[in-house]
DNA sequence: TAGATTGTTAATCGATTAACAATC
DNA sequence: TAGATTGTTAATCGATTAACAATC
């Protein structure tokens, strides 16, 4: 049973794994509060209706080593997930678009725990510039690229309308930003060294909508009135 | 080349397909504005860097029939996607949790186009009840289940803190709601006839965080200072 | 010791991609 | 007609699940 250190360059981690790890992390932190010291894949799998094997595969990428018969030491496991997901090195981020979604995100104070610190917010609307939102002053967008470069900002959050998103993305990249969390309903055209995460609520809603529509269709067939 | 009508009961549509269709839909509507009449999978694939075959497979689920050599008639294709995704039968929804995220969602006026109409918003905070947000009065949460049942509401949106989410979900289901769009960072325990869509921004952020952390690690290795 | 769980390899499943005849 | 694109089947790829020896 030799064990190789996981080398992230060889193979990128599956996206489903990346999205399950924070779920596990949350649960395991709860267990720690309840003074558990070990947790098994069976425990985690039962909580989220997942196969223990899948949980084990997921945890494997963090490099954690477990004990047969008992599971994984909780404190070490939490640390391994946090280290792997980059929660420890908190990165500073700029947010552009101080509308209601932007304001909501500025207010998410737990983002810090996940490696994100929104240090400034920008807008192009004179009515918004200078206003304070959740303790942060909204700055003029034209200041953003220079500030980003000076402050070595790596992450940008886009919460502007779709029509302005590409322009904002270009400015961010100009300022040295290399990862964009995009809430605008637009696919951004960027070079492929830029990480883009689309949070397109309309697409998510469309998927929900289809399932509801299908459920209604099936129900109508089963009970013809 | 016989063609069977797609029967949604036989096989559920892959989630990736459901999330790509609205993207195509948006693009094709743009093309229609520019007076295109036909669009091919090659066109769509080039726009989004996808294989034409994949686009074709995706469009197939809508039942649209194309013309070899020219592609799909734009107007019919838009109609087919909208019908398939359930954009035509707009469903009424209740939103619970009038915090900043709730307020942002109430303000998303395009949700109607995707089959969702937020008709009422609720909260348990006396300070919020009675307030008007984006033209909608915030109601007391205790009124929600009865109102949902009387108004035949099918969709619930949860934007409360994680600690309250399960309780809200239970109330929604009690009111006859069968589909939940959950923005709280919690996995809801519901019976499996309830559709749950988790919009867990922390998980999404964690995935972004990991990629940024990895990019930084690689960069550090490539340029040792 | 007995048995539950780990680590790891193999099999399965589902989604993507390739191949190609049909066709406009 | 020639050739691009559809519709459809087969091959590939990647993620999930199953199997099982090692082990505490």
Of all protein chain pairs, which has the greatest interface, and how many residues does each chain bring to it? A-B, 62 and 62 residues
Q: Tell me the name of the CATH class of the largest domain in chain A.
A: Alpha Beta
Anisotropy-based shape of chain A: globular
Oligomer kind: homodimer
What's the alpha carbon Rg of chain A, rounded to whole Å? Answer: 21 Å
What distance lies between the first and last C-alpha atoms of chain A, to the nearest angstrom?
63 Å
What percent strand of chain A? 15-25%
List keywords for this structure.
homodimer, 225 residues, alpha/beta, Arc Repressor Mutant, subunit A, Rossmann fold, 2 domains, seven-stranded mixed beta sheet, two-stranded antiparallel sheet, 9 strands, 44% helix, 16% strand, globular, disordered N terminus, DNA-binding
Account of the protein in words:
By secondary structure, chain A is α/β, with parallel strands linked by helices. Chain A folds into 2 domains: 8-85, Orthogonal Bundle (Arc Repressor Mutant, subunit A); 91-203, Rossmann fold (3-Layer(aba) Sandwich), CATH 3.40.50.720. Helix content of chain A is 44%, strand content 16%. Chain A contains 8 helices and 9 strands. Chain A has helices at 15-33, 41-48, 52-60, 74-85, 100-107, 144-151, 162-174, 201-222; strands at 38-39, 72-73, 91-96, 116-123, 132-133, 136-140, 155-158, 179-182, 195-198. In chain A, strands 5-6-4-3-7-8-9 form a 7-stranded mixed β-sheet. Chain A has a two-stranded antiparallel ribbon with strand order 1-2. In chain A, β7, α7 and β8 form a beta-alpha-beta unit. The longest helix of chain A has 22 residues, at 201-222. The model of chain A is unreliable at 1-9 (pLDDT under 50). At the A-B interface, α1, α5 and α8 of A face α1, α5 and α8 of B. Chain A binds a DNA duplex (24 and 24 nucleotides) through α3.
